[in-house]
Design a protein that fits this description.
- It contains three helices and eight strands.
- By secondary structure, it is of the alpha+beta class.
- A hairpin with a 7-residue loop joins β5 and β6.
Length: about 160
């Protein structure tokens, strides 16, 4: 079976629940409405780092400890997003993208959905549905410490 490896960078204190989707349940995102558990992961560790930095107001404080958590998704469980909504990458987040992702979650169409990154349109992020029946076939690895290099803080 072929797998796609994906990565998340999160605060270390949340490592045990990195792929539960509970953090997203309390917040809306580009591809889901508030109230739905979904996991956002990236195709590479580098893209995961950029996505994490994009969600901070400035460079993360030194006292915050981060970790990376890798997962392997069977390729057969991944559905590529084919009908991209117009203006999918703009701010504020369009309802069309939230509706699309939420519908995908509700219908349990696949365990993972491949979507383009807003930061680098030719790179991919993956939405993972922890409520999907095949979710338990996704291999989640132990967390590893992750630090952001200070050279990234030269603004």
């Amino acid at each position: 079976m072929n797998f796609i490896s994906v990565f998340r960078i999160i605060k270390a204190k949340y490592a045990a629940t990195a792929y539960s989707g509970e953090g997203s349940r309390n917040n809306e995102g580009r591809w889901h409405h508030k109230g739905y558990a979904v996991v956002y992961a990236s195709k590479s560790l580098a893209l995961a780092a950029l996505e994490t930095l994009a969600n901070f107001d400035g460079f993360p404080p030194h006292e915050i400890k981060f970790c990376s958590v890798r997962a392997d998704i069977p390729q057969a469980f991944i559905m590529p997003l084919e009908n991209m909504p117009d203006h999918w990458s703009v701010k504020p987040i369009p309802l069309a993208t939230q509706d699309l992702g939420t519908l995908w979650l509700k219908n349990k169409e696949s365990a993972a959905l491949r979507v383009p990154s807003v930061l680098i349109h030719s790179e991919y992020n993956y939405l993972i549905n922890p409520q999907h029946p095949d979710f338990d076939k996704i291999k989640i690895y132990p967390e590893e410490p992750f630090t952001f290099d200070e050279r990234l803080n030269k603004r």
